[in-house]
Amino acid sequence: MENNLLFALTLFAFVMSVTPGPNNIMLLSSGAQFGYKRTLPHIAGILIGVALLLTTVLLGFGAIFQFYPALYQVLQVIGCIYLLWLSWKIATAPTDSSLTNAANNSAQPMSIISAVTFQFVNPKAWAMGIGSVTTFTIAGEQYLTSGLWIISCFAVMGFIAISLWAGLGVAISRYLTSRNRKKYFNYVMGLLTAATVFLIIST
Hints:
Elements: H1 3-18, H2 22-58, H3 64-67, H4 69-91, H5 101-106, H6 112-119, H7 123-136, H8 143-173, H9 179-202
């Protein structure tokens, strides 16, 4: 892959990964509630999920949405319902350290499997995957090589970008020194997560 194309791909991967979206809002919330270390499985799940989704698009499955647009609408509905459920979980997350074990166990960072699965119902991830493959792959013998470069760039730049969001959450946590502050923060994060539904609908 030529240097100019690689630079453009790297910039595209970073911008697409760092701009606000469901993943980043949830990472911001997770970083604030659980810290960076406990958020790492969530981060790893996003990176693995995006890599698998890109592989799916590279294999040609992304073209299904072009032939059957209704499937993309179904994906949007599923993604929106799941996001609204997640926003409710974030908004109502426990904020008192004296809660019972059952309540504490209900407030856990997103697991790797959940984060991987979410990428396949995340319309932004599909748009990102399809856009990058159609723009940066090279036809012919270099198709596989260019595809691997795309996956690699999103892995590296994606890790940097989403880590910034989780790190911002960790920084914010220093100000969440009371139960009320934590409660209002959870409300705001829940509303922001729900707001991404409108971004999805408008695309």
